[in-house]
Write a structure and sequence with these properties.
The complex is a heterodimer. Chain A is mostly beta strands. Helices cover about 0% and strands about 50% of the residues of chain A. In chain A, strands 2, 5, 6, 10, 11 and 12 form a six-stranded mixed beta sheet that branches. Chain A is globular, with a radius of gyration of 13 Å. By secondary structure, chain B is an all-beta fold. Chain B has no helices and eleven strands. In chain B, β5 and β6 form a beta hairpin. The relative contact order of chain B is 0.33. The chains are: A mainly beta, B mainly beta. The interface between A and B is medium-sized, with 22 and 28 residues.
């Protein structure tokens, strides 16, 4: 079946460090891909998305590129801030309104 | 514009008790969803509703029922709660353009449920 796999956390970085969170999806069809962020005590919020191969989604300094050849959608940020501390979820939408979420990666950014 | 609201925020039940989780959205979205979030497992879809009057099972529907009361409201009912249903429950909505492919989902703040 369809699934999304992302790297386990927690990921601990110092402020201004470079961030990569890996995400891969199963290659049945051509899903739309998303990154959601969850701050403590809140619901998930859309961070960025890409709907077709080679698209790059970007928001708030975060970027992710839809790589069909490697079935990946890795999240990157050049310089993280303490305020970026949250749980990040990769998700894929295959069809009929059904999203598949990864297990989440907790990011801790230290001052 | 409150977005997606959920009540209650916290709930403790005893095994066998019943309860209904409420969800409402004010964005005039067609589609609504219920997920559960468990440690290390991400979000799993329980039920969804593509439009008023329709509901469909998701990945983990056993032990739950839903009602799409109107376009705004989508409730989740636990008829006989079990400890395995201890989780955080999220409601979400999205605007389906009618093609079967929806876009961004908007999430509520969640309900933290503990079943003793």
């Amino acid at each position: 079946g369809n699934s999304v796999t992302q790297m386990e956390g927690p990921v601990t970085l110092s402020e201004e460090a470079f961030l990569t969170i890996n995400c891969t999806y199963t290659a049945t069809g051509y899903p739309s891909l998303f990154w959601y962020v969850q701050y403590p005590g809140e619901g998930l919020q859309l961070l960025l998305k890409a709907t077709k191969a080679d698209d790059k989604g970007s928001n708030k300094g975060f970027e992710a590129t839809y790589r069909k050849e490697t079935t990946s959608f890795h999240l990157e940020k050049g310089s993280v801030q303490v305020s970026d501390s949250a749980v990040y979820f990769c998700a894929a939408l295959y069809n009929f309104n059904k999203f598949y979420f990864g297990s989440g990666t907790k990011l801790n950014v230290k001052p | 514009n409150a977005g997606v609201t959920q009540t209650p925020k916290f709930q403790v039940l005893k095994t066998g008790q019943s309860m209904t989780l409420q969800c409402a959205q004010d964005m005039n979205h067609n589609s609504m969803y219920w997920y559960r979030q468990d440690p290390g497992m991400g979000l799993r879809l329980i039920y969804y509703s593509a439009s008023e009057g329709t509901t469909d099972k998701g990945e983990v529907p056993n032990g739950y029922n839903v009602s799409r009361l109107n376009k705004r409201e989508f409730s989740l009912r636990l008829e006989s709660a079990a400890p395995s249903q201890t989780s955080v429950y999220f409601c979400a909505s999205s605007d389906d353009p009618g093609t079967g492919f929806t876009d961004t989902q908007y999430f509520g703040p969640g309900t933290r449920l503990t079943v003793l």
